[in-house]
Design brief:
The protein is built from four helices and five strands, in the order E-E-H-E-H-E-H-E-H. It is an alpha+beta fold.
Length: about 160
């Protein structure tokens, strides 16, 4: 996994995002899948990142008092961020209301519907990143959920 700081060219938002590799970032950006979480713009690029490089062992100094770092523009407070995630969870829950949870059978079910072997219906579940990529490569329309979903209680 690799983390990049990205900058929104539309509104100047800066945010952090994780990718499996640099190639994954390039591929997702080329397909228009990388977007600003604040405004939804797909006009984003890598932001300048300063590496955290330690001084040579014989040149380390005691920590000094540093000037406070100014707050980044357009970064929500922890309370606002919590409220945004809560709202996102509500929207995701509403989206999943008519969807069947298929658990670890997700890839098989999605592929079967795509091939016309069974009637299409909204489903959600779990699969490995490799299997999700294989589905996408096969043209099966899938998308990751933004937040984890607790499986429904099983009835025995």
């Amino acid at each position: 996994m690799i983390v990049f700081d990205l900058a929104c060219n539309t509104a100047g938002h800066v945010f952090e995002i994780w990718f499996g590799s640099s190639a994954d970032y390039e591929d997702q950006k080329a397909r228009g899948l990388v977007m600003c979480p604040y405004c939804g713009s797909t006009d984003v690029d890598k932001a300048v990142m300063a590496p955290n490089v330690a001084a040579k062992g014989n040149q380390r100094s005691e920590p000094s008092a540093m000037a406070p770092v100014p707050a980044a523009a357009n970064v929500p407070s922890p309370e606002a961020f919590k409220a945004m995630v809560g709202k996102l969870a509500e929207v995701q829950a509403r989206m999943l209301e008519g969807s069947d949870y298929v658990g670890s059978r997700f890839a098989d079910e999605a592929r079967s519907m795509h091939l016309g072997e069974q009637e299409s219906r909204p489903i959600h579940g779990q699969t490995s990143p490799e299997e999700a990529k294989a589905l996408i490569d096969e043209g099966v329309p899938v998308a990751p959920l933004l937040l984890p979903v607790r499986p429904p209680k099983s009835e025995n």
